[in-house]
Design brief:
Order of helices and strands: HH
Largest sheet: none
Structural class: mainly alpha
Strand content: under 5%
Amino acid sequence: MARNSQKAVPEAMDSLDRFKYEVASEVGVNLKNGYNGNISAKDAGKIGGQMVKKMIEQAENQMMNK
């Protein structure tokens, strides 16, 4: 498993950042560019949880279309 400092696919970082901001907006969390260490664990969990949910849905859809 990749560590936080070592991304499995470094080329995907820009896309993941855009995805993170999109999801944050959807769940009502205002992220600013750069450091966001001031957000609550609850808000960070909302963002991460929704990101995972959407990625799982996408993977399931791809599996169904094969």
